[in-house]
Amino acid sequence: MINILKDNGWQILRVSGSHHRLGKGKKRTTVPIHGKRELGRGLLAAIERQTGVKLK
Q1: Overall number of domains in the chain
Q2: Which helix (H) or strand (E) holds 16?
Q3: Opening angle at CA 15, ends 56 and 35, nearest 5
Q4: Has residue 56 been placed in a domain?
């Protein structure tokens, strides 16, 4: 997921534990990375809304 966002111009601003904070211009979003666990549908939908990037 982070690679998809990076390909669309998002940059990693900081990493705090397992949470990656990304930004593009004034927009910000947080992507949790918890090992090999998949992200839930609701979280994916929220990140898509915040970033405007289709992740599927």
Answers
A1: 1
A2: strand 11-16
A3: 55
A4: no
Is 0.90 surpassed by the pTM of this model? Answer: no
pLDDT score for 55: 82
Q: Which residues fall within 8 angstroms of residue 51, CB to CB, at 6 or more apart? A: 5, 8, 10, 22, 24, 27, 29
How far does CA 29 lie from the centroid of its chain? 6
Question: Could you report how far apart the first and last alpha carbons of the chain are, in Å?
Answer: 9
Domain, as residue range, for 38: 2-51
Largest CA distance in the chain: 30
Task: Give the chain's residues under pLDDT 50.
Answer: none
Give the pLDDT confidence score for residue 53 in this predicted structure.
Answer: 95
Q: 3-class DSSP state for residue 45? A: helix
